[in-house]
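Consider the tokenized backbone below.
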């Protein structure tokens, strides 16, 4: 039985570890926190799983909340121009519904499931020396930790990294009691774009205490929406959200009169520099990330880190874990060389990850041809639907959004 180590207990790491155990491998997963600590901690993300990623989980028997989480089939989109003018509105419809499950709920249960199914879980913080020791005990070591010291062992790929710094300041809050502008259409996500200021997303979800809404501010750094740099507690965060809504989106503010945070850990803040890293690292004898040590393979956010504006994080992680699982199984008893690692990661880059990077960069910078898509979506349901489903299947970006010429040709074909 081949021995494989996975470092990191997020979507990618846990999904891969569970898949390997199901396929008969001896698996050690290193996690920083126990299930109890995960459930009792701060929210981890603003995840929304689209149809393709949900199907991967279903096939693996990991969609444990499919009957409880809201099935979101449409997104109400508003272009809001100061002072509080609804300049453009359209609805984007998904071919398959999306669902969002609080990762505290999801990942904690997956950790327990891994233990129940025979995987070995080590709860500890791992540094580079510890990773080197772990790698010496396993035939393959996969690092799925997207932040912290271990993420730094993978060299930044400048040619594939579109930005040198964060493009948005992020503020997320899980809440109960948010109203709906159209109850008959629920569950529906809502998106507000404020040109030159940022974006607001509202996603129906399932959390530890039941159904909720996840609000995410994507604020241009230093702009008027960037008011959460001191990382306030949930109550103060909600107060500032109400102030911003009242000033910029008063129709949305009316729906927040009964809102309250779901729990003491309901708020999350940050800023992400979208980054692509080289997928293979070697820890030499000094544990310094260089030298002739055993190679380790990066997975998920450790290799491709996107801003959440396009909702690709958990979806791309699910796809990457599935791609790596299939490659490992197909490799049989052959050694896991650095060449095999690079080829495995590059295949996933070409098939999927490069499209998420380019799609996300376009949404962050909003070039003129994307603005023409938004305008056409306000008049043509087909355009709005295709835009919605590009979130679910980012490879379609290359067929119609990658260049102004492609976009113009598509819009002409639908009369846009």
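A designed sequence for it:
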């Amino acid at each position: 039985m081949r021995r494989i180590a996975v470092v990191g207990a997020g979507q990618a790491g846990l999904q891969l570890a569970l898949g390997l155990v199901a396929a008969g491998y001896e698996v050690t997963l290193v996690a920083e926190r126990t299930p109890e600590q995960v459930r009792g901690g701060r929210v981890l993300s603003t995840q929304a799983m689209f149809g393709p990623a949900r199907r991967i989980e279903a096939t693996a028997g990991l969609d444990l909340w499919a009957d409880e989480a809201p099935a979101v089939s449409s997104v109400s989109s508003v272009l809001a121009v100061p002072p509080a003018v609804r300049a453009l509105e359209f609805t984007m419809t998904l071919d398959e519904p999306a669902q969002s499950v609080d990762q505290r709920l999801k990942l904690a249960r997956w950790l327990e499931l891994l233990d129940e199914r025979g995987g070995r879980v080590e709860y500890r913080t791992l540094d580079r020396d510890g990773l080197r020791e772990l790698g010496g005990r396993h035939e393959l070591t996969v690092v799925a930790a997207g932040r912290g010291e271990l993420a730094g062992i993978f060299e930044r790929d400048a040619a594939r990294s579109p930005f040198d710094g964060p493009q948005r300041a992020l503020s997320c809050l899980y809440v109960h009691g948010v109203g709906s502008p159209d109850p008959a259409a629920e569950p529906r996500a809502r998106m507000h774009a404020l040109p030159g200021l940022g974006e607001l997303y509202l996603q129906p979800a399932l959390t530890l205490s039941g159904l909720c809404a996840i609000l995410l501010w994507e604020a241009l750094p230093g702009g008027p929406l960037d008011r959460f740099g001191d990382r306030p507690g949930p109550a103060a965060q909600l107060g500032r959200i109400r102030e911003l809504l009242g000033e910029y989106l008063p129709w949305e503010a009316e729906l927040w009169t009964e809102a309250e945070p779901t729990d003491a850990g309901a708020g999350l803040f940050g800023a992400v520099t979208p980054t692509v890293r080289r997928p293979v690292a070697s820890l030499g004898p000094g544990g310094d990330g260089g030298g002739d040590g055993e190679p380790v393979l990066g997975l998920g956010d450790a290799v491709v880190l996107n801003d959440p504006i396009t909702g690709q994080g958990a979806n791309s992680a699910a796809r990457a874990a599935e791609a790596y699982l299939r490659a490992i199984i197909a490799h049989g008893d052959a050694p896991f060389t650095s060449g095999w690692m690079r080829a495995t990661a590059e295949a996933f880059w070409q098939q999927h990850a490069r499209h998420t990077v380019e799609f996300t960069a376009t949404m962050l910078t909003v070039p003129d041809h994307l603005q023409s898509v938004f305008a056409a979506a306000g008049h043509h349901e087909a355009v709005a639907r295709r835009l919605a489903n590009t979130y679910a299947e980012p490879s379609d970006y290359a067929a119609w959004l990658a260049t102004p010429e492609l976009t113009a040709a598509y819009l002409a074909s639908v009369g846009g």
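The longest strand covers residues 85-98.
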